[in-house]
UniProtKB/TrEMBL annotation:
Organism ancestry: Bacteria, Pseudomonadati, Pseudomonadota, Betaproteobacteria, Burkholderiales
Keywords associated with the record: 4Fe-4S, Electron transport, Iron, Iron-sulfur, Metal-binding, Repeat, Transport
Family annotation (Gene3D superfamilies): 3.30.70.20
One Pfam family it belongs to: Fer4_7
Domain 4Fe-4S ferredoxin-type: 1-29, 31-64
Domain of life: Bacteria
Record-given protein name: Ferredoxin
Source species of the chain: Pseudoduganella violacea
Gene Ontology MF term list: 4 iron, 4 sulfur cluster binding; metal ion binding
NCBIfam families: di_4Fe-4S_YfhL
PROSITE patterns: 4FE4S_FER_1, 4FE4S_FER_2
């Protein structure tokens, strides 16, 4: 499942550099997460790094993007291949 940022975001900028997949970007008003790039940090870390650092806990799982661990790992592999 990808993660999402709610409108409780205070634009503190700390999550964006922590994302190993460059999935976090500044949207029109607050930070947003590209669900096609978010792997829940699978392949890189054991915990979602953005959730760990967000001071207002506004990064829940995105209920519209339910994915298995295998699907998340496949996404990680696709993203790595695209970088190469
Ligand atoms: S869970 Fe990981 S991959 Fe997804 S947005 Fe947060 S830091 Fe990036
Ligand atoms: S860490 Fe949380 S509050 Fe800060 S920019 Fe990211 S989502 Fe917004």
């Amino acid at each position: 499942m990808a993660l999402m940022i709610t409108d409780d975001c205070i634009n503190c900028d700390v999550c964006e550099p922590e994302c190993p997949n460059d999935a976090i970007y500044m949207g029109p008003e607050i930070y947003e997460i590209d669900p096609d790039k978010c792997t829940e940090c699978v392949g890189h870390f054991s915990e979602p790094q953005c959730q760990q650092v967000c001071p207002v806990s506004c990064i829940p799982f995105n209920p519209e993007r339910r994915e298995t661990q295998d699907q998340l790992y496949e996404k990680f592999e696709r993203l790595q291949a695209a970088k190469a």
